[in-house]
Amino acid sequence: MSDRLHARISAGVLIPGVSPRLAGALIGCAAALTMMPEPFSYIAMALALVGALFPSTLATWGCALALALTQLARTPDAGDWRPYVTLAVVHLLHVIGALALVVEPGGSLQVRALLRPLRRWLVLQLPAQAVLALVLAFSGTNAPRGLPTAGVFAVIAAACVAAIVVLTLRRR
User: Fold this and answer.
1) Where exactly are the structural domains of the chain?
2) 33, 32, 152, 140: which is closest to 79 by C-alpha?
3) What's the CA gap between 36 and 44, in Å, rounded?
4) Of 78, 58, 80, 65, nearest to 31 (Cα)?
């Protein structure tokens, strides 16, 4: 009789709810140590740690902003790996920071719940990395001579806007 009163629910594979916070801190600190000069890396690491402890302060986004702003000090080079990794990490910090805001640290999180945000992250990264490669190829010291750089950027921007409009209309 007691078997009929107890329901069994299978939630799949669970991870601790504090995992998005830990991932944000680890990714932010690792990126700050490897891609930033010394005084600024400490600031970005502190922001990543504050964002892990108190997600409502939005310090994770401050760490992402510091990482992105460091790229302004570098000369644009399509062969350099840092801009590509920075783009991916900044976007990943955004996704993880948003998850840290909604997941209770004392609870648990289904691994299946992570698949959709990570799939969206990957789908957005593919065209973003391609656009970044084009922008880096046509800027800086490696830019082909005789090609109007502003015109190339205008065409890239128009193509991005057209793609967004087409995708938005398709969903409706």
Assistant:
1) 13-137, 142-172
2) 140
3) 9
4) 65
| DSSP string over 12-66 | -SEEETTHHHHHHHHHHHHHHHHHS-HHHHHHHHHHHHHHHH-GGG-HHHHHHHH
Rounded CA-CA distance 156/163 in Å is 11
Here the tokens at position 66 are 């510091």
The SS3 call for residue 145 is coil
Residue ranges of the chain with per-residue pLDDT less than 70: 1-4, 140-154, 172
Residues 78-98 pLDDT 10s: 888 899 999 999 999 999 999
Q: Which amino acid is at 71?
A: Q
pLDDT at residue number 12: 79
